[in-house]
Amino acid sequence: MVERSFELPDLGEGIAEGELVAWAVAPGDHVEQDQVIAEVETDKALVEVPSPYDGTVIELHAEEGEMVPVDSVIATFEIDASEADAAATDETDATSETGSAEAESAELETVEATEGGAEAAEAGGGAPGGRVFAAPSTRSLARDLDVDIGTVEGTGAGGRVTESDVRRAAASASGTTSADADSAAPVDESEPVVVTSEGGTTRERTLAMPATRRLARERDVDINDVPASEEREGEAFVTPADVEAYAESGGSAAERANKATTSGTSAGASAVGPSATAESDSSTGGERVPYRGIRRTIGEQMAESKFTAPHVTHHDEFDASELVDLRAELAAIADEDDVNLTYLPFVVKAVTSALKEVPYLNASLDEEAGEIVLHDEYNIGIAVATDDGLLVPVIKHADRKGLKELAREIDDLATRARERSLPREAMRGGTFTITNIGVIGGEYSSPIINYPEAGILAMGPIKKRPWVVEDEVVARKTMTISMSVDHRLVDGAEAAQFTNHVQSLLAEPARLVLE
C-alpha cells in the first residue's frame, strides 16, 4: 500500500481558488475512482470533485467553508501499489496527449511563462505548471510599463499577479519605490481634494472594488485617507495600487496612531479617533456571515458593472391584452407536449428582433483595443433567482429558436440553475440579458447591466390598469418594462427605439410568428 496526495484540480479558465462547500467522504472511508468526494464553489458554479483513485481516505486537509487554492493538497489516499503505478502511467499519457493542445490554446486568463518566468516560478513566485494568472487589466498595465508578466511574483490568491505586483516589478526594474511609481499616475484635478499632512484626505465617501477594500483592511489603511488616482461618477475611485502606495509611504493607521501618541497633539488624536470609533462600531453585536462564494462573485461583478459602465435607465408601459390572450391559447396547445409556455419566450423573441434593429445594444466595448464589438450572435441571458443568489444562464442563438424550443430551454436552464448543476459554459457568452421582476411583484427597477454587455431589460408584472382606448378610459392588462444601457455605447434615443420595437411586437404578438 502507498499514500497519494490529491490536489484540487483545475476548476476552469482563470480560476485560482474555490470554496470547499462540503465533503462527501470522511477519513477511513473507502472510495472508488470517479466517486464524488467534495463540492467546491467557484464564481457561479458548484463543482463536484471526483476521486482520482480507488482506495481509502487517510486525511482531509481542508475544512468546509475554507477557500482552497487550485493545486493545493486537499486529501490523502492509501491505494494499492499497482493502482499507483497505473495512475502514474495514466497521468503521463494524459500529459503527452494534452501538451500540444495546451501549447496552442490562448486562454483568456493565463499565458505560458517565459524562461525567466519559469525560473521565477521554480523559485516559489509563480503559479503551478508555469502559468501566470492575471486579469486582462493587469496584463495591459504590464505592457504599458514594459514588464514581462512571466517574471512577476504573484501575491494574489493562488499566485495570481495583481496590478500592485506589476507596479512593484516596474519600480524595482527602474530603481524606484512603489510609491514613486504610483505617484506618476495621472490624477483628475477637476475635483479639488484636501490632503492632510499625513497624505490623507477629507473624503467621507470613496468608491472602490471589494477586493481593494479588503486590501485596505489587510494593510490597516482607512480607504477614505488614500489619495485616489481615478474618478468615477464624480467621486474618488481608489485602486489596489493606490492602497499599496499609501501604505508603503507610511500611511497605515497604526503608524498614524504611533505618530499621534508621540506628538501628543490634539490634531494627532483627532486623526486617530474616527478610525478607532469605526472599528468598535463594526464589532458591536449582530451575526457575521462570510462574504465569499457566489455572493462575493455577484457583488464584485455588480460593482465592476456599476463603476465601469455609466448606466442610464428607460421605463415604459404597454397594452399587453393581446399577448395575454395569445399566450393562454398557445399554452393549452403547448401543454399537450409537456411544455410550460410562459411570457418569457415571447419577450425573448421580441428582444432578439429589436437587437437586430438596434445593433449597438448587442455589443460590448473593447477598451484595450478602443473598439466597439458588434456581436453577430444573439445569446440571451435569463436571470434566475436561486437560494444562493442570482444566476444568468444563456440561451445561445436565441434568434433561431421558436417559442416551444425557447420555453423548453428556459425551463431546463432555470431548473438546473436552482439545483446548482449548471456548467460554467452555460453562463458564458451572453450578449444581452432579460430579468423578470414581475414574478416577485416589482413594478419598475433600475437593473444593473451584466457587464460587459450593453443592456438589460427588466419585465414588470402584467396587471389590470386604467388605459385610454379611443378617448375612453378602460381597464386593460398592461406590462411595465425597465431597461438599463451602457451610455458609452448607447444614447437615450436608441434605448427608446429598442423598447418601442419590443413593445410593438408584444402588443401585437401575432407579428412574432413572422420573426
Q: Please give the share of residues in helix.
A: 25-40%
Total of DSSP H or I helical runs spanning 4+ residues: 14
Category by helix and strand content: alpha+beta
- Estimated share of beta-strand residues: 15-25%
CATH superfamily of the largest domain, by name, is Chloramphenicol acetyltransferase-like domain
Biggest sheet statistics: 6 strands, mixed
CATH architectural group of the largest domain: 2-Layer Sandwich
Count the strands? 23
Distance between the amino and carboxyl termini: 66 Å
The strand order across the widest sheet is: 14-23-22-21-17-20
| Low-confidence parts | 92-129, 177-202, 259-280
Cα-based radius of gyration, to the nearest Å: 27 Å
- CATH topology descriptor of the largest domain: Chloramphenicol Acetyltransferase
Characterize the overall form: globular
Account of the 3D structure:
Helix content is 35%, strand content 24%. The N and C termini lie far apart (66 Å). Mean pLDDT is 78; it is low at 92-129, 177-202 and 259-280. Helix 3 (136-144) packs parallel to helix 4. It has 515 residues and is α+β, with helices and mostly antiparallel strands.
Detail the topology: elements first, then pairings:
Layout: E1 2-7, E2 17-23, E3 30-31, E4 36-42, E5 45-50, E6 55-60, E7 67-69, E8 73-79, H1 81-104, E9 110-112, H2 115-122, E10 131-133, H3 136-144, H4 163-174, H5 178-183, E11 207-208, H6 210-218, E12 230-232, E13 235-238, H7 240-248, H8 253-263, H9 266-281, H10 293-308, E14 311-319, H11 321-335, H12 344-357, E15 363-366, E16 371-374, E17 380-382, E18 384-386, E19 389-391, E20 394-395, H13 403-418, E21 432-436, E22 455-469, E23 472-486, H14 492-507
Parallel strand pairs: 11-13, 17-21, 21-22
Antiparallel strand pairs: 1-8, 2-4, 2-7, 3-6, 4-5, 6-8, 9-10, 12-13, 14-23, 15-16, 17-20, 18-19, 22-23
